[in-house]
């Protein structure tokens, strides 16, 4: 947080026509969250939530919803008459806030708070009316150009549409990100007029307005203009997504996580992963997931909104969704923890096992081909291959409770609601519909009958006929 009060205004009222979407541009996602969430998070690294404001217009309610809970304020710009207009409609709500005013855009999620902080520091050190962020670009087409006077001081910004050929030959581009002295900004903001080919109120006009009023404006040069990249279409969205993913995996690798073929993995912004964990290629770790230390997440696995404790091994092609996995668990390959499961320490979940709303006790095993839904399974219980909990009767879901140390034989069909006591055995191939007390054996299948010599007789009969 900065010591001098800083107010941040994020412009996010535009539709973003080139996205070719029914959804406002800032609601599109990159790096695992919406663009507006990224920029609000960046602003919150700089200043307090009561000093962050988002200018909303198109789909205002949906944009508010996307960042609700972060405690920031909103200003409604009902008609989008330009970037300057967005600030003009903000004046009544913001002009009483002293200190500095930082303005940036909702469609630029790569902007980092360190750069904004440098901008504020440059303004504090320079003591002028404001500082704009600029970059020398090989091809500045589309950007506003920074016009300097004979002494090299910033004089004004000229938009692409209004520039003379001489002005458009200038390669110093305006990134559209500013830090102003709040009092001077609000004093002069109403002087912006829409006298340009687009008939818009340009925020860029503030630069000339302030210098003509006798104030100094400065420009802070960025080394890498990529950080100010704004998204206009879905191809640019993909580029920005890739950059955000690269940043995230790099940050994780530098904090002690091994990521194999990092260019193939997708890890969302808020994911946390502990030291010495290995992430194999083509995995996705999404949402609010945390993974402990010394784990392995196998190739092509997907972990979403889940907590995985230390020393967990997830084998390839496993899906873990909204579940909690305690330490030392083995899981997969090809397992699916569908939703809201809790797997206790040291349990084993093998291939083609699906869990839904199930608590699997410590050291319990379901090693192959099972469906366990709406069930509580005691510690050290063994679930045989092919076990199915029949939790749905066509109308309602029902619970299955299995005590500690039970043994469920292969291919058992457990018809819920059902209770199986601790230490009980269920014979392989049983259909169990009634409660099984602790330590009992339940058999629910046809008794085997045997016909000695039947097969030999059958073959002899066949030979005679031919
Ligand atoms: C702006 C700058 C340009 C700079 C460029 C950098 C102006 C006039 N020009 O141009 O000098 O080089 O950024 O990317 O500022 N918005 C509103 N309300 C409006 C209009 C826009 O909230 O009435 C929002 C948009 O949703 C968008 C942002 O402001 O997120 C930028 O607007 P845009 O029209 O894209 O400005 P640029 O043409 O990029
Ligand atoms: Mg733009």
CATH topology of the largest domain: Spore Coat Polysaccharide Biosynthesis Protein SpsA, Chain A
Mean pLDDT: 96
In angstroms, what separates the terminal alpha carbons?
Answer: 94 Å
Radius of gyration: 32 Å
CATH superfamily of the largest domain: Spore Coat Polysaccharide Biosynthesis Protein SpsA, Chain A
Structural class: alpha/beta
Overall outline = elongated
Helical content band: 10-25%
Question: Can you tell me the CATH architecture of the largest domain?
Answer: Alpha-Beta Complex
Task: Describe the main β-sheet briefly.
Answer: 16 strands, parallel
How many domains, in number, for the residues?
2
Number of helical runs? 10
Percentage of β-strand residues: 25-35%
Weakly predicted, low-confidence segments: none
How many individual β-strands?
39
CATH class of the largest domain: Alpha Beta
- Compounds present? uridine-diphosphate-N-acetylglucosamine, magnesium ion
Regarding quaternary structure, what we see is single chain
């Amino acid at each position: 947080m900065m010591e001098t009060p800083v107010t941040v205004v994020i412009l996010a009222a535009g539709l973003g026509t080139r996205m070719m979407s029914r959804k406002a541009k800032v609601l599109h996602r990159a790096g695992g969250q919406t663009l507006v969430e990224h920029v609000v998070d960046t602003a919150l690294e700089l200043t307090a939530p009561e000093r962050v404001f988002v200018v909303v217009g198109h789909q205002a309610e949906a944009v508010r919803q996307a960042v609700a809970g972060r405690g920031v304020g909103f200003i409604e710009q009902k008609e989008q008459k330009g970037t300057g207009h967005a600030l003009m409609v903000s004046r009544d709500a913001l002009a009483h806030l002293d200190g500095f005013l930082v303005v940036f855009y909702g469609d630029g999620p790569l902007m980092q708070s360190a750069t904004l902080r440098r901008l504020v520091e440059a303004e504090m050190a320079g003591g002028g009316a404001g500082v704009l962020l600029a970059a020398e670009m090989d091809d500045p087409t589309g950007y506003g150009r920074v016009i300097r006077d004979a002494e090299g001081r910033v004089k004004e910004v000229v938009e692409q549409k209004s520039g003379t050929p001489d002005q458009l030959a200038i390669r110093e581009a305006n990134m559209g990100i500013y830090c102003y002295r709040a009092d001077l900004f609000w004093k002069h903001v109403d002087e912006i007029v829409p006298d340009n080919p687009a008939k818009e109120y340009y925020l860029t006009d503030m630069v000339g307005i302030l210098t003509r009023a006798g104030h100094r404006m400065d420009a802070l040069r960025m080394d890498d203009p990529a950080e100010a990249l704004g998204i206009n279409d879905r191809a640019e969205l993909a580029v920005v997504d890739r950059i955000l993913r690269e940043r995230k995996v790099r940050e994780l690798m530098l904090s002690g996580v091994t990521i194999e073929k990092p260019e193939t993995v997708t890890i969302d912004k808020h994911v946390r992963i502990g030291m010495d964990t290995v992430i194999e290629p083509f995995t996705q770790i999404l949402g609010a997931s945390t993974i402990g230390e010394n784990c392995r997440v196998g190739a092509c696995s997907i972990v979403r909104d889940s907590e995985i404790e230390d020393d967990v091994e997830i084998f390839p092609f496993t899906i873990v969704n909204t579940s909690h996995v305690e330490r030392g668990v083995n899981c997969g390959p090809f397992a699916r923890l569908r939703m809201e499961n809790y797997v206790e320490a040291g349990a084993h979940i093998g291939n083609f096992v699906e869990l839904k709303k199930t608590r699997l006790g410590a050291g319990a095993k379901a090693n192959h081909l099972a469906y366990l839904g709406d069930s509580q399974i005691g510690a050290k219980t063994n679930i045989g291959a092919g076990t199915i909990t029949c939790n749905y009767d066509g109308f309602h879901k029902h619970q299955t409770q299995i005590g500690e140390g039970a043994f469920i034989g292969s291919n058992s069909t457990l018809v819920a609601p059902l209770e199986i006591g601790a230490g009980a055995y269920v014979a392989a191939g049983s259909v169990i519909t009634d409660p099984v007390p602790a330590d009992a054996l339940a058999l629910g299948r046809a008794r085997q009958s045997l016909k000695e010599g039947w097969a030999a007789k059958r073959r002899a009969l066949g030979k005679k006929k031919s």
